[in-house]
Amino acid sequence: MPRLLPALLDTPDRPALRFGDRALTHGRLAAVAAPLAARISGSSRVAVWATPTLETAVGVVAALLAGVAAVPLNPKSGDSELGHIVADSAPEAVLAAADAELPPALARLPRIDVDADAAVPDVVPSLPPEPADPATPAFVVYTSGTTGPPKGAVLPRRAVSSTLDALRDAWRWTEADTLVHGLPLFHVHGLILGVIGPLRRGGAVRHLGRFSTEGVTRELSSGATMLFGVPTMYHRIAESLPTDPALAKALGSARLLVSGSAALPVHDHERITSATGQRVIERYGMTETLMNTSVRADGEPRPGTVGVPLPGVELRLTEDDGVTEVPSDDPEGVGEIQVRGPNLFLHYLNRPDATEAAFAPGGWFRTGDMAVRDADGYVRIIGRKATDLIKSGGYKIGAGEIENALLEHPGVREAAVTGAPDDDLGERVVAWIVPADAAHPPTEAELADHVAARLSPHKRPRTVRYLEALPRNDMGKILKRALGDA
């Protein structure tokens, strides 16, 4: 199997990583990662204390060079969750920056300090051979665990390479690109796409440490060409643009703005485009599948969609039975997204029952996401099957389109939509609103009329709940299960 990161040797003088005022070229990254790779060689798995630092990137690269599966750990996780992940994955060591303070849950693991500034020769004449089998595990990434303890998705090297190469095609991603982002490094988005992606291309990544519009302006104004973010970040950008001409100019100079991990509201799409002339493109993926679809750089950036299947990815929509396909020429046909291809995970670690339940006959992975498909193949996700598909009065209603409609109301700052049991309708639409002005929130009747006028009467909220803020996870996704009963 070809190397995952050929630029480490092929273009050693190119910039590779920058975190604050610390940076490494591809060659220097190889030089500091190689001794670490040799030290962990022969291990099955190693944990990586995934702080937003140069050391995290070096530790992960060392694991990839050694053919050892990396288990990224969220530094914000509590002891109970960390204890579960460590017991489940059984890593043989934990890699961490020398100054990192590790929690008690990791106390029994041998610790290996990562030194990105190590005094080693800058020239690496060779690197150890990488595994020949493309099914060799590269990462074990733990899911959010909304229905139980987190499950470890075992991602093979072929999933990493196939996804990143498909994005090269879709996004015209080359060694000339420099990516900027402030995403956490314990997740697929920030780590695999946001760090390993640029390194595989032979380009560079500048990590902000912590997201800020000032950081985005600085980096895009000084040579960065791409920005990755989640909707909460782009919402902050949209809010800042009217009073920040430097930010608008910087975004206008970017080659590509990409949003993921959750749906970006159409209202924010429109505000960013109006102020910068740029359109944000969206893509769709999961921990278990890496990336499935994307709006292409040379395609139509259609707000509200996640584009078309990536090269090598098969996608279908199925009825409730999980087998019958929704006709591809039915733009109103709602179905569960199922995918298959080289981008899929191997299995859930130590969970054969969960792995079996995750797949339909024929090797199709059940994503649990509901969508409709435009006539030209663009996919529009309407939400999670468990929390965002509302069956009301005989209709299948997607929460996402109602949320977008609510966000168009000037009195709404944030919105989430769920379903609640209803004796008459089966389920009723419930809107959870963060008002723009808490002292004068829009009324329930006003919001119902607003949605009915934009969509249709059966999609209007029957109940409205007002909040100071919506519960979100580290990636900006709204935690609908935390909203409670209406």
Tell me about this structure.
The chain is of the alpha/beta class and 486 residues long. Among the domains are: 7-199, ANL, N-terminal domain (Rossmann fold), CATH 3.40.50.12780; 389-482, GMP Synthetase, Chain A, domain 3. 28% of the residues lie in helices and 27% in strands. It has 13 helices and 26 strands. It has a 9-stranded mixed β-sheet, sandwiched between helices. Strands 16, 17, 19, 20 and 21 form a 5-stranded antiparallel β-sheet that branches. Helix 5 packs across helix 6 (188-201). It comes from Streptomyces tabacisoli. GO terms for molecular function: medium-chain fatty acid-CoA ligase activity. Belongs to the ATP-dependent AMP-binding enzyme family.
Summarize this, please?
The protein has 486 residues and is an alpha/beta fold.
Shape: globular
Question: Largest beta sheet, briefly?
Answer: 9 strands, mixed
CATH C-level name of the domain at 7-199: Alpha Beta
User: Which regions have little confidence, pLDDT < 50, spanning 5+ residues?
Assistant: none
Family: Belongs to the ATP-dependent AMP-binding enzyme family.
Domain AMP-dependent synthetase/ligase: 11-349
GO molecular function: medium-chain fatty acid-CoA ligase activity
Protein name: Acyl-CoA synthetase
